[in-house]
Amino acid sequence: MSGRKTFYTTTPIYYVNDVPHIGHAYATLACDVMARFKRLDGFDVHFLTGTDEHGQKVEKAAAAAGMSPQSFTDKVSQSFRDLLGVMNYSPDNFIRTTEKRHYASCQALWEKLVASGDIYLGKYAGWYSVRDEAFYAEDETTVGPDGKRRAGPVNNEVEWVEEPSYFFKLSAWGDRLLEFYEKNPRFIAPESRRNEIISFVKGGLQDLSVSRTSFSWGVPVPGDPKHIMYVWLDALTNYITECGYPDESNPLWRFWPADVHVVGKDIIRFHCVYWPAFLMSAGLAPPKRVFASGWWTTEGQKISKSLGNAIDPVAVTKEFGVDPVRYFLLREVPFGNDGDFQRRALIGRLNADLANAYGNLCQRVLSIVAKNCGSVVPPKGVLTDDDNALLGRAQGLLAAVRAEIDEQAFHRALTAIWEVIADANRYVDAQAPWALAKTDPARRDTVMWVLAETIRRVTLLVQPFMPESASKILEQLAVPQEARTYAAFDQELAPGTALPKPQGVFPRYVEPAKAAS
Ligand code: MSP
Questions:
Q1: What are the boundaries of each domain within the chain?
Q2: Ligand 1, atom 16, residue with closest C-alpha
């Protein structure tokens, strides 16, 4: 519209069978950081999240709660919406698969698949996992010592299903998918997931059952409403419903194909095999990239309802603050790997990286400026090699962080930023501005300008990760809102600008028991 480059990122839409935990907050955090970065970097951004409300699993959860599926989904969907405020996420929209526009979009896509000759009526007889909402071939299942048959990435129980069903001719798409992966090496990340998908497809694809008749909570198949659409066909379609599908004149259609679908490692088959096949069959472009994140355990244990060990985002952000939790989740573990959520590790990072390194840098610099430089941005004198070296490293961060964000390498982006913070702390010690106050106040001013300017550059890049804290620091440097974008990255602090009274942004975390003693 505006001629700006578009950027469309999506989270998985969450099943409303359960309340959100930190694992659910994770993919949305990654999308939030990308969306915020791209907005600051001048892109026309659309960031979508939402809830996946149909299917047998949700229908069962509603029945167990003694509620109708609609009122149950209304209630649980709201808890996922509330999570957005809790974690300070900035989606442009929250989609629900029970919306009317989504029914229309699913049915239009179905009709396209029919028109392509890829849908036929048959009978499904095979294994199904309600928890995964997935069909499994017999050789993908194993029978455990308890006599129960299981399958899939988290080894959920499967049951035998036999019912009339429409099928999608997935078996005919293997070669075209392999060609697509070959031509689009960035489509699946990380690399290990790409290999996993390629070998799955090379192993041969079976036709996919895409409708169910044994329950009714879903989108009716056009022309045959005894059938409802398979919940994954319904769910995946949300990404194009949002863009207005089938109305390609909708202004939001400019965002398709999506730039990055962030998904958990357990759901890549749906996103990297079924989804591009459906889209290509319907004559639509597949998304540009699917990034599979790893899974969180807590204190070494799988997150499970029965263990009651799920980290509640509300409680954890209340105790530690939203920004430290956001920082920890993306800094602690390379995005794509599994991670273990340990309280001790979170406190360690909060105190070492945030309070001691970044917080302390801001605090010492801003308080010297307030006390000794008249609470204004100090004059910038002649720069030495050391000054230029630090400023240069801070300058180089924009390109470095941009490149890492494009790879979803959030931990590397943060590492790069924190290296400059460490450099800046070393520079303070080496320049000893407190000593210069007596011997060479003009040099002291220059040193303080270099430091304040370094904090500005660093903090501009911290914004997508820790928006609230970054904003507080930029306010203390009197950086106006319009100068916080990356177009203004080179707009240096102007000497003489009045600065507000400095305030600490990252307090040290002290265990309550210790604080009391
Ligand atoms: N509804 C489907 C997605 C449809 S997308 C078109 C679904 N929902 S889910 O609620 O079960 O899971 C949503 C996401 O949360 C998945 O990507 C899953 O990997 C992620 N996680 C669930 N538990 C998790 C952890 N313990 N750790 C990290 N992510 C986890 O699948």
A1: 6-294, 343-488
A2: 264
